[in-house]
Amino acid sequence: MNNQEKLINILSSYKPEIDINMLKSDTKLEDLNIESLTFIEIIFDIESEFGIEIPDDKLGDLKTIGDFFRCIEKKKEELALEKK
Fold it and tell me: Are 12 and 18 in contact (CB under 8 A)?
């Protein structure tokens, strides 16, 4: 399972009624009716699943599934560089 599929699985675990085949990178979280507490739980799950930390000041930038994916990829790249 690739990172995008993992992200989609995390999101769909909080909104099982959503057809995951309809989720695209430009899908807005507000269109999924994700409440603020659920948003925080999703962040914790993403951080745990991917072994990253998303700074609080970046949370407001995460509006679409694509934003989440790009953030995950960037954080994973930063971790890889730190390990070198």
Answer: yes
